[in-house]
Each structure stands twice: as structure tokens, then as C-alpha cells.
Amino acid sequence: MGKFVFTIPKRLELDKRVANTVHVIGLDGIPWPCKISYDGQLLSIHRNRDESGHVYMAYALPDFGELVLSTGTLVETDEPYHLTRELARGTLNRLRNQLSLWEEGGLEIDVEVERVLELATDSFGQAVSTSDVNAVDRTANQAIELATQALFRLCQLFGEQVLPYRLQNTDSPRSWIGVNISEEPNEALKRLKIPVDVVQVSRIHAAPSEPCELVVGPFLDASPGGMMDRWAAANSFEERQAMIIHECRAELQKPLDRVKILHVVSGINGMGHRHLSYPQQLQVTIDLLQLVENMGIQIPTLISFDTPWAEKLAWSVGGVHPLQIADSLLRRGVCLSMLGLDINLDYWPNGSLPRDPCQWLDLVDLWSQLGLPLVIRLSAPSQVIPAVEAPVNRSLNSVRGSLTDEELLRLLDHVLPVVLSRPMVHGIIWGQLQDGLDPRYPFGGVLNTDGHLKPIADTLFKTFG
Length: 465
Hints:
There is one protein chain. The protein is an alpha/beta fold and 465 residues long. The protein has helices spanning 16-19, 83-104, 111-128, 133-168, 185-192, 229-232, 237-252, 278-294, 322-331, 357-368, 405-420, 455-462; strands at 3-7, 23-25, 31-32, 35-38, 42-46, 54-61, 65-70, 81-82, 176-180, 198-201, 213-216, 220-221, 259-268, 301-306, 338-344, 347-348, 374-379, 398-399, 425-430. It is globular, with a radius of gyration of 23 Å.
């Protein structure tokens, strides 16, 4: 029941880390829990549902690092699929569909995209027309690499042609760039030495002297390891709930000058943990939004959702898609103004897997269906020191290391312009000012521990000119 079987080329090393990225998404768009088995030749994926679906998994590419790729829609069959060929089919199909859509919309496509697309199509044609297993793998792998190259180039063209119009169009909402700090804003901005539009602070500080605005919060980080120790030490949920509401009310009674957004809750992903079950997270979120409304505060409110691609559902029994949570909150009529996507890229196990720019665009378009402005809260490890390891704790992350610095910067170079081209994306906040400030996401700062700017800062800020 619910079984897909693939033959695996000998050159692919399907270790535990890669196997843990495998998941299936059905017609409902929800990742399903799967049982993975591998005997050295055949990869078997079992799930408790008889339905066609797309298989997703991490795949190493020489020019782009390890990215999550997907097959086309597969039906259950007794005959094994060839993994590389099906990943090539899915990647090429996404490329052709995206190219067709943007061409119809007036995007100017250069000859390089057309040339590489033709080469990828030829390679895939060879993969489906031969019975030689080694030839299938070789030509299908060529098709994957070429199609990915064309996808990145296509997204680069989209960003170059669309983003300037978005940033210059006075009818579109103003887009902004921000950084998350944990100290007095003026001191942080002196160390950053790069102008930003917005700073995010965990608690209400004096307004910065620099011409930037504040995002305050989150008042509650609902993700594993995000709760303050004194709240976690409470003897019951009721006691914990009362403490959260009381301290949030005290913060909201302070002056709110230059506060742009109230970030009420972050890190909701549809699953609970030992300090807050999912129903408890939802209840406290509603309580805090009602508190803001009852106090008559007119500042826009933000709730942000962890792992917005929802891949964690594939490795858990039970759970709710973060998009469904947002939809449920809106149907309750709460005073929710903006939705945030917490993307902790290339962390494990509480992060998001690296994906090509088109998958980021699909994510933004999916969340835009709810009709609220989006804020991307982004974090990723850079300049990782191999000798330094993250603390061993279930609530913390290690760096997956699937992307080198060069690959990460290349990915963000293509992702950020595409994402910001969408009018529903109002801003991007980098999740950590300096390495070490949040041990759950090591090496995630735009400054290293010595206070020097890292190359990630140039990549992040140059998108805004």
C-alpha cells in the first residue's frame, strides 16, 4: 500500500542524511510521512495512502550544491522507477512550465536559456530511449544539471527585468530590508555599518537614532528551544500562559514610537514540543492577538511560521501544515495583519532544505493566496568553522553543510530578486546580527564573532541597491 520503488545508480551515495530528505507530496500539497528502506540497489518508499504523488529528495549538483529536486507525478507500479530519470523528468517539466508561463507574460528570454533547454531535452530523450542502466543514469544526470542551470538563468532574468519595476513602482508597497538584533538598536547599527530600513528587537527598546523603524518581537517563539527559561520552568500550561500574557501586556504598555510591526508569535509549524503542544501554541497565539486588539493598539501584527514548505510533516506522525494554521487563524477573525515565513536554510533538524529559486517562488505564491502581506525571516550558516560544533541538544540544530559558502551566495543571489519581485513580499529580515547570538542557528550572523561583516551581508543588501 502506498509504495514507490526506485533503482539507485551505484555512483549515488544514499546515506542516512540524504535518505532523511526523501518525502512524498500528493495532490493535496501536503508532505506525507514515509518509511524509507534501501538495500543497496532499490529504494522503497512506503506511505499509508494509495495515491499518486511527487517524490522529493536532496540531490548533489556540481555547480549548485545539494538541492531538493522532485520527480513528476508518479503512480504506483510493480516495476521500479529509475531515480535519476524521474528526477530529470520532474526538473525538466518544471523548467518548461515556468518558461512558458513567463514567456506568455512578456519576459524576454535570452538565447542561453533556449540553448541549454534544448541540450537538457536532448539528454533526457537519450535517457528514456536506452535500456542501458549506466547510460540512463549518465544522460538523465546531464539533463538534471542542464535543466537546473537553465532554471537559475531563467530566474536571474526574471529578477533583472521585474525587480527594478517593483522597487521603482510607487503603486506597489514599499519593500524593505531588516536585521534581527538583541541589543540596543543604536549600538547594533554602529557595528553593522550598513544602512537598513528596519531592525527587529526581541523587546521594546528606545527608538534608534538612525532613520529606520522597529519590528518588535516575537513575544513568543513557539519553535523548539525558543521559549524563555522562566516560562519553560512553569508547572502547568495555565501558569505558563498567564506569564506570557502578563509580560506581553507589560511590553505593550511601553512607548511604541517608530514601531512598524508587532511580531506576536514566531516558529509555529503545526507540531508541538514538550513545553507547548500544538493546541496550546494556537491558544496562546489567539490570546496574544486578542490582547493587542483589546488594548486598542493600531500597529500591524505579524505571526510567522517555521518550515513553511512543511517538510517536517513527512518525518512526523500527525501535524498540521503551517498554511492551514494561518488559514484557521484568519477564519477566526483575529487581528492579524501580516504573515511571516521563517526560513532557516540548511540547518538540521529544525530548518528548511535548500531548493532552487523557482521552488521559493512557488512557496511565496502559495502563501500569497491568503491575501496578507508576507515577511521573509531568513537565516543561513556561512563561514562555518568545521572544528566548532553546535551543542548536542534535540532542540538545537547542527549545520547540514550541504552548501558551501559559494553555493549559498549563488543561491541567494538568484532567490532574493525573484522573491522580492512579488508585490506580496513586503520585506526580508535576516535572522541574526552576529554569530553566536542564537545557538540554535550557528554561524547565522551577518557579522562574525569578531564583529566583521561576512560576505553574506553583501549578497543580502545589494538586492536593495
